[in-house]
Amino acid sequence: MNRARTTVLTVAGTLLLLAAMEGVGRLGVLGESWPPLTQVVAALDDPITRDLLGRALAATATAAGTGFVAGTLVALVVAVVGALLPPLQPGLDRLAAVVNAVPLIALGPLLITTVGREGTPAVIAALAAGFAVFVAATSGLGAAGAAHRDVFRALGSSRRATLLRLQLPAAVPLLIDGLALAAPAAVLGAVVGEWFGAPRGLGVLLVSSMQNFQTDLMWAAALSAAVISLTAYAALAGLRVAAARRFV
User: Fold this and answer.
1) Which domain holds residue 240?
2) How far apart, in whole angstroms, are the C-alpha atoms of residue 142 and residue 146?
3) What spatial distance separates the first Cα and last Cα of the chain, rounded to whole Å?
4) How do residues 87-101 score in pLDDT, each as one tens digit?
5) Is residue 225 in a domain?
6) pLDDT, the chain, mean
């Protein structure tokens, strides 16, 4: 019952948002910079525009996916190291906080000179996604109850055995929550990374269309990035529901 109610509210909210976007564009409340949604969709009837947007979408999705996977793996390794070596945990937490505090846009010029223009979007996506996964993994690994830890300790289990048989299973729901938050962050990171001169991608398309006053194309690119983010979030949120049944 609760799931059906949530689904109905989600669909109703989405339709209300789309209607509001259309209404604002039709009424011209925000001027020509906010076209009706139907006008943006109609622009995709042009094969050239559709092909251009499709290639940009594929490039951004590839960079975001690569960064998401890389950031997740690095974050998990660092979180596991902290769990196996508790004295290192405070230092790893501070390091992650410092790296996250650096504005992603400030890293662009440095990354261009090190990994190149094509690699920058994926690296920034990895940095954006990694912190969310690290926080979730660290919290999840510490979520196991003290009583369970005492049992494992009394039975003489090593830290490695405790990690594999107790902490990791207990961390799964929180870890998936972190992945759900990291996926949209990876998309945003990839788009920001493309602003620094990447050869292709939605970020490049956004900047180009904005500079050339191609409002419909600009909105189409922005909505495409939003669709990628929402799709990834919805998929991982669904996975969270399944994991909750198994591990909670």
Assistant:
1) 35-247
2) 9
3) 20
4) 888 898 898 888 888
5) yes
6) 84
pLDDT number for residue 126: 94
Three-state SS sequence of the chain: CHHHHHHHHHHHHHHHHHHHHHHHHHHCCCHHHCCCHHHHHHHHHCHHHHHHHHHHHHHHHHHHHHHHHHHHHHHHHHHHHHHHCHHHHHHHHHHHHHHHHCCHHHHHHHHHHHCHHHHHHHHHHHHHHHHHHHHHHHHHHCCCCHHHHHHHHHCCCCHHHHHHHHHHHHHHHHHHHHHHHHHHHHHHHHHHHHCCCCCCCHHHHHHHHHHCCCHHHHHHHHHHHHHHHHHHHHHHHHHHHHHHHHHC
pTM to 2 decimal places: 0.85
Q: What CATH number corresponds to the domain at position 172?
A: 1.10.3720.10
Whether 191 is in a domain gets the answer yes
Each residue's pLDDT tens digit, 119-160: 899 999 999 999 999 999 888 887 776 666 666 677 666 677
Locus of tokens 């990374």: 193
Residue with tokens 């400030």: 106
